Amino acid sequence: MVHGLSFDCPDCLKRCTSKGGLSRHRQIHRQFTPASEEEDENSFQRRFHPLLNALPCNADGEYLPPFSPPAPSPAPPANGLDPQTWAPFESRLEFDFAHYHFVELQTSEHQINTALDLWAATVTQFGKTAPWQNAAELYATIDSIQQGDMPWKTYQMRYTGPSPPSTPPRWMTQTYEVCARDLRAVLHHQLGSPDFKDAVDMVPYLQFNHAGHRVWSNLMSGDWAWKQAVSICSAFAGEKLELEEQSLDPLQRLGLKLQNL
């Protein structure tokens, strides 16, 4: 994109003064090689994204003072008991029963069914029922246990490409179960954890070795993160321009648009 006598890089929004300068600059976005084991990554040169600074801010986008503490945790319940303490079990008794048979004794399915029959026979006289009718229901409850607030999700995957005319290999016809967590939620938790303080690159960067060749070592040194930063900055610039236009009369709006062509 050309702005007057300047030439903007579509990858990082760097403004060059000539077409040749833009061509030379864009080479840094094309030439890259993996870092070799012999090279010391700490000695590489880094060129950080010029528009994103990763300074901490609040939900309204206002910068926080340096070394600001994190937001306080939610207040505990008034009685000191969290109703979700034993979730997905309804009570401590159910949790202890499952832990005792499944973890400590590693009870067989047949023996769990027998124990549940005895439980049901004991509480039936009081008009109640056992929490599970059989071991399969107990296993389903155990499988629904969540660690933290990022549940596991199960996906069914199967090959859908072309098959050979003869008997296809088994992997082409089978359905596979994949268990995974929401990667976006995982990233949010990592960024909010003090364990990762000063251990995460918050700003995309371009990395160069001693020969001046571009190298990459993690997500933030790759093209995807850099282009995402460019996209964010472009969207922000568009919103800012729109707000400026709203405060101008029609003639001033036209002049502002012509200025940004």
TrEMBL record:
- Originating species: Favolaschia claudopus
Q: Does the keyword Zinc apply?
A: yes
Q: Where is this region: Disordered?
A: 63-85
Q: Name one GO molecular function term.
A: zinc ion binding
Entry-linked PROSITE patterns: ZINC_FINGER_C2H2_1, ZINC_FINGER_C2H2_2
Q: Which residues lie in Pro residues bias regions?
A: 66-77
Kindly provide the name given to this protein in its UniProt entry.
C2H2-type domain-containing protein
**Domain of life of the native organism:** Eukaryota
Q: Name one Pfam family in it.
A: Plavaka
Q: Does the keyword Zinc apply?
A: yes
> Keyword annotations for this protein?
Metal-binding, Zinc, Zinc-finger
First and last residue of the signal peptide: none
Task: Provide the C2H2-type domain boundaries.
Answer: 7-34
